[in-house]
Design goal:
This protein is an alpha/beta fold and 227 residues long. It has eight helices and nine strands. Helix 1 crosses helix 7. The structure holds guanosine-5'-monophosphate (5GP). The site of guanosine-5'-monophosphate has 15 residues, from strand 5, strand 6 and helix 4.
Length: 227
């Protein structure tokens, strides 16, 4: 079975990453090939969030026990003292089953994943401007002014890592950015390396059929450059 690919998606808060990922999964994943990893975090749940859907919300103590058990593929302190981490077991299981796995993680996590899994593809989403970023954070109405200011500082720090990524998308038009995101995944599926196992039967049959046609004289070997 061909292993799936890891896709890392990073962006500063408010760049539209969550909405893009949601739309990608809802509109373009009928075959369920792509799975979204649900991270663990020690940050408090926001209004509207659901435990085990948006995140696995855990205490610092639980998180540190998971670190000690080497349960994380990567983890980081993202906002001050808040831990965020990707659980290793499910991601590896999905990839072994041939699923692609999307990781919505920050630049620190992306660096750790690249080291362990160099075949991972990383995508950075930029907002069209900082003014737009701030207004998206304010309109989201999830955080206080103080938290928004901290998020803006973090956003600038996050943006400074854009050049570590394989792809950079400027999210100035949602549908276009979604199409680009989808295209990156399709491009990856078309790569020879990611199709070797699934192509082997097809190629074997094509050669067999070709040989039969050649022996029946249906194909002129001269046209194929064989003689
Ligand atoms: P939020 O608190 O707004 O949900 O997420 C804050 C940041 O944490 C986002 O940039 C998000 O990508 C990042 N993040 C979410 N889960 C993980 C994770 O498992 N690992 C790392 N390194 N970052 C994460």
């Amino acid at each position: 079975m061909q292993k799936g690919t890891l896709f890392i998606v990073s962006a500063p808060s408010g760049a539209g990453k969550s909405s893009l990922i949601k739309a990608l999964l809802e509109r373009f994943n009928a075959d369920n090939r792509l799975k979204l990893s649900v991270s663990h975090t020690t940050r408090p749940m926001r209004p509207g969030e659901v435990d085990h859907v948006d995140y696995h919300f855990v205490s610092v103590d639980e998180f540190e026990k998971l670190i000690a058990r080497n349960a994380f593929y990567e983890y980081a302190h993202v906002f001050g003292d808040k831990y965020y981490g990707t659980s290793r077991e499910l991601v590896e299981q999905w990839m072994d089953q041939g699923h692609d796995v999307l990781l919505d993680i920050d630049w620190q996590g992306a660096q750790q994943i690249r080291k362990q899994t160099p075949s991972a593809r990383s995508i950075f989403i930029l907002p069209p401007s900082l003014t737009e970023l701030r207004s998206r954070l304010v309109n989201r109405a999830q955080d206080s002014e103080e938290v928004i200011n901290v998020r803006m500082q973090k956003a600038i720090a996050e943006i400074s890592h854009y050049n570590e990524y394989d792809y950079v998308l400027v999210n100035d038009n949602f549908d276009e950015t979604l199409l680009k995101l989808r295209s990156i995944i399709i491009e990856c599926h078309c790569e020879l390396n990611n199709q070797k196992d699934s192509l082997s039967d097809l190629i074997e049959n094509l050669i067999k059929e070709g040989n039969q046609d050649l022996s029946k004289g249906a194909v002129n070997p001269r046209h194929l450059g064989l003689i």
